[in-house]
Write a structure and sequence with these properties.
Strand content: 15-25%
Structural class: alpha+beta
Number of helices: 17
Largest sheet: 6 strands, antiparallel
Number of strands: 21
Helix content: 40-55%
Distance between the termini: 45 Å
Radius of gyration: 27 Å
Length: about 550
């Protein structure tokens, strides 16, 4: 089919081509004259990459240049796999440490444990190197070897470990189960290759072996991935030839419609999709289209709001560019993109807001809104960590205690049964005291502001005694924070410790018992209130 472009588009392209040619000429001269005249030696390749990155930064955060050295990252984005040792790493105390080895991958098989400090990779000293820098050293072709020098907590000797890199495949579905009440529960972590196939097979297997009362798909924290996988997942529950998403870009080639291609597997099973503020892109396509078709209930918090589509374009010298080419729209014709990057300027600060955008309607006539991610049908306020808990986590105190616990305890109960006893918690309090843990509470910050203001306004001398009493009271209450926030801290400790023994799957299992969003989803599907709340939510407001 021949596509006829409008004259205005052609004229604009001619003008842009002239500006590009002119800019390239100027850029070439700048780089050439720098090379010839600058007082010190320059590195043209580094300057060029810096210039490219600065240029792309003016657009949106998803349009990025990918040098040859980062090609492995592209495989991780699109295929969910890369060549490496298979471990999450984190930085603290001037070194990158093993945070979570993946079960049965090289790091785990070599005996690396959480808390191991990586001090050298293939002869390269890694002290004070960032997570990204060390990650680049650890990755490589599957089958190649990498020699690590490790410092283990409490040991003086340096350990040398030789690992053979493998193709690391991150599971799309790290956990699934049929809960005791007949509700199927599937956690989908990403939308890489075969995500839809794996979810379909998982669901059909559970359905064939159980009399299911409903299905929960957990997309919390799922940052997205391949668009076609999202469409195919919707197709499991929605009839053939339904428009799930369409894209609109600068050129006609970028305007595409994505329909369901196959007969669905189940259009009747009650369905709840769990989302939060980190559910983005492909997750929002699934949640948004399920909502628009009134095929299921969306539960949780407002999603991220990424309605931009990127293509990875191959370029010369084995480099690539990930570039935003279009915006996507879901069946109600709304775009979920939160920020309009086209309005970005040097004097503007891009921000989000809670103002609802234009109204649209679902298949049943329910009102939904554009422009701010997917608003859940059932909103659950997120649980906010207390100040002390946030600092215990950020300062790696919880992480370090879990490491020490693991060293001193060979086994623990199963993930669904293990709990932090008062005895374990008392050990944790003593551990915190030994760590010289300090933090500033929000009340202390407000108090210091009050003192400054009182001094500025001349009131301080008159109210000093009252301020001293208040300061003492604040300190006394702060000293009890570990007791006041005991249950919240226990929950994080439990998950961290379980991960030492049962890895990511165990951590997921350990959170189910106290997951209030999961409990609320189960209530909906089991019609707990006797009013058929699930069906009432999906009906049009009249």
């Amino acid at each position: 089919m021949m596509v006829t472009l409008p004259m205005s588009f052609i004229a604009q392209e001619k003008q842009n081509n002239f500006e590009i040619s002119k800019s390239l000429d100027i850029y070439n001269n700048v780089l050439r004259y720098l090379n010839m005249n600058y007082v010190d030696e320059i590195n043209p390749a580094e300057l060029n990459e810096t210039a490219i990155n600065a240029m792309l930064k003016e657009l949106d955060p998803y349009t990025v240049f990918i040098p040859e050295s980062e090609i492995e990252d592209v495989r991780l984005l699109t295929m969910g796999e890369y060549g490496g040792i298979g471990s999450v790493i984190r930085y603290y105390d001037d070194n990158v440490h093993i945070s979570e080895p993946y079960e049965n991958f090289p790091a785990h098989k070599a005996g690396l444990i959480p808390g191991d400090a990586i001090i050298e990779v293939n002869g390269v000293n890694t002290e004070k190197k960032s997570v990204d820098q060390v990650s680049e050293l650890l990755r490589g072709q599957p089958g190649s070897q990498v020699v690590l020098k490790i410092k283990r907590n409490g040991e003086k000797d340096v350990l040398t470990k030789t690992l053979t890199r493998e193709k690391i495949k991150i599971d799309n579905i790290p956990y699934s189960a049929v809960l005791d009440n007949g509700i199927a529960y599937i956690v989908l972590n990403q939308f890489t290759k075969d995500a839809a196939k794996e979810l379909r097979e998982c669901f059909l297997k559970m359905k064939s072996e159980n009399e299911l009362k409903g299905l929960i798909i957990d997309l919390r924290g799922n940052g997205g991935g391949l668009l076609n996988e999202a469409v195919d997942i919707v197709n499991i529950f929605v009839p053939k030839n339904k428009l799930v998403v369409y894209t609109k870009g600068k050129t006609p080639e970028q305007n595409r419609n994505y329909f369901t291609k196959n007969e669905p597997d189940d259009t009747q099973i009650p369905l709840v999709i769990l989302v939060n503020e980190s559910s983005a892109s492909a997750s929002e396509i699934v949640a948004g289209s399920i909502q628009d078709f009134d095929r299921g209930v969306i539960l949780g918090q407002r999603t991220f709001g990424k309605g931009l589509v990127q293509n990875i374009l191959p370029m010369n010298y084995n480099t690539q560019m990930k570039v935003t080419v279009s915006k996507y729209y879901i069946p109600s014709k709304r775009c979920i993109q939160e920020i309009d990057y086209s309005k970005k300027s040097k004097n503007d600060t891009l921000s989000t807001n809670d103002t609802l955008g234009p109204q649209f309607k679902t298949a049943n006539g329910r009102i939904v809104y554009e422009g701010h991610g997917i608003q859940p049908d059932v909103k659950i306020e997120p649980e906010m960590l207390s100040t002390i808990t946030a600092h215990l986590y950020a300062q790696n105190i919880i992480f370090k205690f879990a490491n020490e616990f693991y060293e001193n305890n060979k086994t623990i109960a199963a993930p669904e049964s293990f709990e932090i006893t008062d005895e374990i918690y008392d050990d944790f309090i003593r551990f915190v005291e030994d760590q010289n843990f300090e933090y500033t509470s929000e009340s202390e910050k407000d108090f210091e502001d009050l003192v400054k203001t009182a001094k500025l306004e001349g009131y301080y001398d008159n109210i000093k005694d009252q301020l001293d009493v208040l300061k003492t009271e604040l300190k006394n209450h702060k000293n009890n924070d570990l007791i006041i926030n005991k249950e919240e801290i226990k929950e994080l400790l439990k998950v961290e410790i379980v991960g030492r023994y049962y890895f990511q799957k165990g951590k997921l299992i350990s959170t189910l018992k106290n997951d209030k969003e999961l409990k609320r989803a189960i209530e909906l599907l089991l019609n707990a209130d006797g009013q058929n709340e699930y069906e009432n939510i999906l009906k049009a407001v009249r």
